[in-house]
Amino acid sequence: MAERFVHQVATYCGERSFLDIAVPFCEDGIRRGEPVLAITTQANLELLGEALGDRAGLLDYGESAYLGRRTHERTAAYLRYWRRRRRDTPRGRVRVLSEPMWAGRSERERIAWHRMEAGLNVLLAGTDIWMLCPYDTRASSREVLDNALRTHPHTIGGGHEPAANERFTGTERFIERCDAAVPLAVPPKGTPAAILTSLSALREYTTERAAELGLYGERAGLLTVAANEMAVFLAMGDSDPLTVRIWDRFGGVTCELRRRGEREVDPLSGYCPPGPRPSPGDGVWLARQLCDSLEIRSRDGLCVVQLNVPGARAEEARRGAGFALAVEMGMVVE
Amino acid sequence: MTPFAHPRFGDHLCLPYDSDGERLAFSVAYVGSAMRTGRKVLVHTDALSPAAMRTELSRSIPRLAAAEAGGQVEITCSAGSHLAGGVFDAARSTSALTAAVREALRSGWSGVCVLADMGWAARDSPGAEDLFAYEAAINPLFAVGGLAAACLYDRRLFPPDRMREASAAHPLTPGQAELRFIATPPRLILFGEADLTNAPALAGLLAPLGAGRDDVTLDARQLSFADLAAMRELIALGGRTAGTTTVLAGASLSHLLRLLGAGDQPGFSVREGDHG
User: Taking the domain A6-181, which CATH number applies?
Assistant: First the structure.
C-alpha cells in the first residue's frame, strides 16, 4: 500500500512566511473538499482567517496552548478528528496543520513533545492524515529545529507537495535517544518501598499510598488502573515481585514499579491505541492516557517504570480526573 | 480459616493448597458450613478415597453420617464423577452440574455446594486439557443462584503456569481479584474486581450473553476495578449481540470505556451514574 500518512515539517520566520506555508495547504484542502484542522497560536489563527477570507468558515481550528495540552491529549485529538471527519471526503484524506507550542516548556516536556512528533509516524501510519507542522524559528531553539527535522519524514517541495526529508533519522532510534535523555526521578530519602507479588496487593498499596499523598476517589482510581497495567506489562508474579515506591514532589506524584531483570522494551510501546486483537503495548497505551508522563527503562539488570500524575495541590486536576478525560474526548465544552 | 470456607451461592472458588492438612481443614470447614445452612453438599474427593474422606470429615463433623443417610451429603470419587467413561467430557459435566442443582432444589434443599478435589486433572487424564475452558464456561451457572463450588488444586501436582490457568478460570481465588455476579435477566450485575487473574472467568461468564436475546444490560456500577482486558470483554459484548448492549458504570469506568472507543460502537452504550 502506498504511504498514507504524510508528516511534513516547515520552518517560518514572521507573518508573511507563515502564510506562505499555511495558506496553500489550507486552500488546496478546502478546494478538494477535504476537512482541514489548523492548530496554531491565536495570532497565526487570526492571520490565517483573514488570508482565507470567506473560505475560513470551512476551516476547523484550535489553539496550540489548549487543544491537547499534553502529548497524549494532542494525539487523541488528531485521531478523534480523523475518525470523525474522514467520512466527509471521498478519498478519506484529512488535513491537519499543527504547530507545537514550545515557549515555557521544561526540558522534560520538550523531549516529550519531540518524542510525540516522532511517535506520530507510527501512531498515525494507518490514517490518511496529511499533517503539516510549522516551526517558528523566532520561538524555537536550534535544538528544537534540529529535532523537528529529525522527526518528520517529509518537508515541503517547491509546489508545496510532500518531499522526502533527508535529515529524518527514523522513529524508533529517535525515541530511544529521547528516553535516554530523560533521567528517572529519584525518590526522596525515606520513601517507603513495598515488595509485592500480586496485582490485588499492588492495587491496595497504590490506593493507600495515593490517599496518604492526598489523591482520593477517581484520581487515585485512575493511577491504580495505570499501575495495574504496567505491572501486567512487567509480568509481575510470585517469582517476579515488584518493588513499588510512591512519592510526591512539587508538581506531581510518582509511582515507580521496579523489577529485577531487564526486559525487551519496544520504544514505540504504547503509542498506538489498542486494535481489535490484544497486544502487549495496549496496557502501556492506556497507562499513558491516564498519566502526565510515563517512563520505561530497562538497563543495569533492572526494568523500571515511573508513572507521573498531577499532585494533590494541582488546581487543574481538582476539577476531577474524569473531567480531564471528558474534555479530551470532546464530551465537555469548557 | 479463609472466609471462602463459608460458601455463598454464586461463588465459584479456586482454592490452591500446599498440604494435605490444609486441604482437609478447608474441606471440614466448607462441608460443615454448607450443612449448617441447609444445602445439599457434593464432595468429589481425589487425594483420599471416599471412605477415607468420610472418616476424616466425620472426626470434625459428628453429624456427617446422619447427613449422608438423609441425602444431604454425597461423597464420591472425583475421577469417577469427571471421568465417567474414561474421558473428561465438558458437556457431560456441565449437564451433571445443572441436573444436580435442579434435583437438590426439587428435594427441598436451598441449593448445592460442591467441593471438588481436581487432582485427577494432573494425571494426564484423557480430555483433561479441556478442564480450564470448562471451569471458565460454567461460570454463568453460578450467576443464576443455588450453586456454590470450591475447586481444590494441589500445588504439588500442578506446575505454576497450570495453577495460574486454573485460578484464572475461576472468578474467585484467595489473594487475587474477587469477582462476583448475579443474573437477573436481561441484566447481569457484576461486583468486585476483574483483572488478569480472573480474565478467562469473566470471558466465560459473558460468553452466552447476547445469544438469542435482543438486549443486554450489564450493571458494572459495583465493579470496583476493571483492567484493560476486562474492559475489552465488556466492549466485545456489544459486537456480538444482535440487539442493544448497555453497560451501567461508575464515573471512572465510564470514562475508561469511552476512551477505549465504546462510544463509537453502534448498538453499544455506556450509561454513567446510580440510576438504571
Answer: 3.40.50
